[in-house]
Amino acid sequence: MMIGIVTAIFYKAGTLHVRMEQEILDAKQMLVTADELRQTSDDLTHFARSYVVTKDPEFKHRYYTTLDIRNGMAPRPKGYAKVYWDLSKEDRERKHPPGEKKSMDAIIAELPFSPEETAKLTMAEANLNEIVKLEIEAINAAEGRFKDAEGMYTVRAEPDRQRAIALLHSKAYYEAKQKIMNPIDDFLSLLNDRIEGIFNALNAKLAFFEYVMFGVIVGYIFINLFIYRYLVKRNKLDRQKLEYLVEQRTQNLETSQRKLQEAQSLAHFGSWELNLETNALTWSDEVYPIFEIDRDDYDVSYELFAHFIHPDDRSLVDRTYQESVSRHTPYRIEHRLLLRDGRVKYVLESGETFYDAKGTPVRSIGTIYDITDRKKYEQTLKDREALLSAVVEQSMDGIGLVDRSGHFIMVNNAYTELVGYSKSELSRMHVFDLLPPGQEPEMFPGIIRTRQPSRREKKLRRKDGTVFLAEISATPIMIGEEERVLGIVRDVTEYRRMERALEYSARHDALTGLYNRHVLEKQLSAEVGRAERYNHPLSLFMLDIDHFKKINDTYGHQIGDMALRKVADILKKTMRKTDMTARYGGEEFVIILPESSHDEAMELAQRLCGEIAGEPYMTGGEGEFFLTVSIGVASLSKSTGSPVKLLEAADAAMYAAKRSGRNRVVSA
C-alpha cells in the first residue's frame, strides 16, 4: 500500500512536471512567434527604406521575399528571427535551410494561445498588413507609379523619391508601427503573467509535494526498517529489491527536480527561497545568469542579493518586501540591478511569504525575471514620441489635429502664431471658426466623407480679423480606434503675390506697362492662325517715335523714358479693348488689330498719329516740345501670310514713313 502511495505521488509529480514542461515549451514557441512577427515588421521597414533611398533592386527583392514568407507563399527559413540577410544566399541557406511554407496566421492558429493572446497577435498581424500598404505605396512612388481613382497603381509619372522617403518616415507610418508593437508588447505582458502563474503554481505544488514526500519517505523508511528487520533473515532477495525501489524513487525525485530547473532555464526565469528562521537563501540555477555571476565565486545570501540591487532602488525593494511580510500579501515589483561592469538590468520580481500556526513568517519564495529588453523597447518608444513631438513643435508650418466633428485636439506653436489664437483658445474652437464670412466650408466635410487626403488654398481669418491665403494639406488618420484629421497650414499670401508679380513682369514691359515682345510674338502667331482659319481680316501697325535719340541726347534718358511712357499712355487710351499693344523694343511699338480691315487700320493709325502730335510734351525747366511718330500699317494677305512677314511689311512701311518726312502713316 505504501509503495502505491509513493508511486501515485511520484506519478502526480511527474505528470505535473511533464505538463509544466510542455506549457513552458509552448510559451517559448509563443515568444518565438511574437518575436518573428516583430522581426518581420522590422525587416520589411528596413528593406523598404533602403530601397527608396538606394534603388538597389536587392532590397526590393528581399522586401517581397519577406512578405511571401510571412504570408506562407515562400519557404520559411529555419530560425527566421536570427536570419542575417546580408549573408550570401548560399551561406544564409546553409545556416537557415528553407523549411515548409506556412503563414503567420497558420502558425498563430496552431499554438495554444488564450483568446486574449490570440486577439493581441491577430491585431498586430492585421496592423502589419496596414503598414505594408504604406511601404508598397512608397516603393511604387520611388518607381514612378501612383494610385488612380480606384486605388490601383496605374498612374505613371516621374519617380518621387522624396515622397517615398516621407511616407516611410511620416507620423502616420510611426503610428502604424506602434499599432504593431503595442499589441505585441501587450501579448508579452500577458505571456509573462501566464509564465509567472505557471511557476507560482509549480512552486506551490512542489512545496506541497515536498511536505507530503517528507512524511511519506519518513513513514516509508520506518516501515521498510520494520520489514527489513522482519524479512532480512528470511529473504535476502527481498532486501535487494527494497534497496532497488528506494534507489528508483530517489532517482525519480532527482529527475523531477532537474526538469524543473530546465523549465526555468527555458523561460529565463529564476526562483529563490529564503528561510526566515535561519536566514538561509537559495537560488535556482537560472538566477546566476541573470546576475551574470559564477555560482562557485559567491556564497548566496540576502546581502549578496541586496548588493546587486541598484543603490537608488534598494530602499524601495526592501520596503516592498517588508510590507508584504507584515501584511501577509504577495508582492510584485520592477527594479534595477547594477552589474559588476557597471551595466544596468531591469528585473520583475515577485514573492510570497508563508507563516506558521502562530502567524510567524517562516519561509519566503519567489521568482525573478529579466525584463531588460522590454524596458529598452519601452524607452525607444518614449524617445521616438519625444522626437516626434519636438519635430512637430519646431516645424515652421502650422500643424493641427482635429476630431471627426472638426474640433481642435492639438496644435503646434507655429499654428498659434499663424492664426493668433492660443492653444487654450483653439481647444474650444471648430475649424469653421477660422473661415472668413462667405467662405464655403466644403474642404473638411469632403475629407470626412471620402476619407481621402486633400490639398487646397483657402482664405483663413486671424484673431485680429485679418484674412490671409493659406495652403492647407489635410489627411485622415486613425489613432487607435478613433478617426482624426491631420492638417498642415502654411501662409502663402506673400508667395502668391510675388508669383503674380513675377508673372506680370514676365509678360509686360517694366517701363511702359505694355505687353513685351515675347508676348506680342506669341499672340500674333495665334491671331494669324485664327484669321486664316476663319477667313477674318487682321491688321497690324508698327509705331516709332521720331527723333528719339535726339530727345535722349538733348534732355537726357530720364526725359526719354518719360516720353516713352507718354506715348504708351496715349496708346492705352486710344486703342480698343480687343487690340493688343506692346513695346517692341527701344522706341518702337506694335499694335495688333484683330477683325480690322486695312482701311480701318489706316484710319485708326491716322487718328493716333494726330493725337500724339497734338499733345505737347512738358519737360519742366527746359520748356515744352511736341512728340511725333511714324507708323507703318500692314494687313494679312497672301504676301504677308505669316507673323514674320506681317511684321516685316509693317516695319518696311514705318521706315518708308520716316524717309518721307516722319509724323505720318504709310501703308505696306
From TrEMBL:
Domain PAC: 331-383, 454-504
Positions of the GGDEF domain: 536-668
Organismal lineage: Bacteria, Pseudomonadati, Campylobacterota, Epsilonproteobacteria, Campylobacterales
PANTHER family xref list: BIOFILM ARCHITECTURE MAINTENANCE PROTEIN MBAA, DIGUANYLATE CYCLASE DGCP
Name of one Pfam family that matches: PAS_3
Top EC category: transferase
PAS domain span: 384-437
Key word Signal present: no
Keywords: Membrane, Nucleotidyltransferase, Transferase, Transmembrane, Transmembrane helix
Alphabetized SMART domains for the sequence: GGDEF, PAC, PAS
UniProt KW Heme keyword: no
InterPro entries, per database record: Biofilm_reg_signaling, GGDEF_dom, Nucleotide_cyclase, PAC, PAS, PAS-assoc_C, PAS-like_dom_sf, PAS_fold
Protein name per its UniProtKB record: Diguanylate cyclase
Gene3D superfamilies linked to this entry: 2.10.70.100, 3.30.70.270, PAS domain
Transmembrane segments: 208-231
GO molecular function per UniProt: diguanylate cyclase activity
EC numbers: 2.7.7.65
